[in-house]
Amino acid sequence: MSSQYLTPLVVQRADPYIYKHSDGYYYFTASVPAYNLIEIRRAKTLNGLANAAPRTVWRKHDSGEMSQLIWAPEIHFINNKWYIYFAAAETTAFDENGMFQHRMFCIECDNPDPMRQEEDWIERGQVKTGMDSFSLDATCFEQNGNLYYVWAQKDPAIKGNSNLYIAEMENPWTLKTKPVLISKPEFEWETNIFSVNEGPAVIHRNGKLFITYSASATDQNYCMGMLIADDQSDLLNSNSWTKQDKPVFESNLSVRQYGPGHNSFTIGEDNKTDILVYHCRDYTTIKGDPLYDPNRHTCVQPFTWNSDGLPNFGKPNPYNYK
After folding, report:
1. Residues taking part in catalysis
2. Percent of the chain beyond pLDDT 90?
3. pLDDT for the residue 276
4. N or C terminus of the chain with fewer C-beta within 10 Å?
5. Contact present, 110 and 116 (Cβ < 8 Å)
C-alpha cells in the first residue's frame, strides 16, 4: 500500500498518538527519548506534524510517584476538556516481580487551546484500578453514552508482564467499575522474549469495536494483535471480546521495518481515510535495553477494510525520506 505521507513522520517519538480535533488541527503526543516530560504539537496536515514546534505541557516531578520514566502519553477531548493519560514511576528500579513500577495518571486542561501555556494543565492524579501493580498505556473511548477505559496491567497471579483490562469510567480520571480482563499473552507471537499485551487502541467501524494492541518484546518481535466485540454487546463481559489468533501488523523485513506497534488511529485530511499511527525501527542490532534506544520513529499510513468488515493494515511502509 503506497502512502503520500512522510515515512517516518516524526523521528525518535515512540508510542505515538494523533487526534484530529474539530478545529481542523491534528494534535500529536508521544514518548520523548528522555522520558522526562509531555509535549504536544499540532498541524493542519499529518505531514505538517513532522516540523511542527512541540510545546511542553507538563514536566516530571523532582521526586515521588510522577518523577521517573514518563511513558506513552495520549491526548483526548472529553466533555469540552482536554485530558492526557500517561504512565510514570517513582523509581527506575524493578519491583519484587522484576517489573518497572509504573502507575497511570491523568492531567486536564479546560482551555480550548491546549498548547497555550503549561499552567493550564492541572493534575488529576493516579487513575486507580483496584490493583496495585505495574500499569500503563491507558486509552479511552465512548460507546452508547458510556466512557470506557482500556489499559495494560500486571497481575502477579498471571504469567507474563501485562494483560489488557477494560472498565467503565465515572469521570475521565476515575473508574466506575472493577477491571475486566479481556486479553492475556498466550500465543507464541505474544510471548517472544517477554509475554506482553500492551498499548491498546480503539476504532469503531461496521458495527464492531476493534481493540488493537502490541505484543512481545520491544525489538523486531514487537507486533500488533486485535480484539473484536459487537458494538451493542456488554463490553464489560470478557466473553464479548474475541481475539484474532494471528498478528494483524508485524515487521516487514523486506523494507527493514522492525517491531511496529504501540499504535493509535486517526482520520485523513479528507475526513474519510482511516490512518494507522505506529512506531517502528529500521534496524535490529540494538545495544543494551531496547527501551533506551531512541530510534523508534512515528509512522502513519492509510489502511482499508475487507469485505468481511475487518481492517486490513497491510505491512509497514518503507522509508521515503532520510
Report:
1. 15, 198
2. 94
3. 98
4. C
5. no
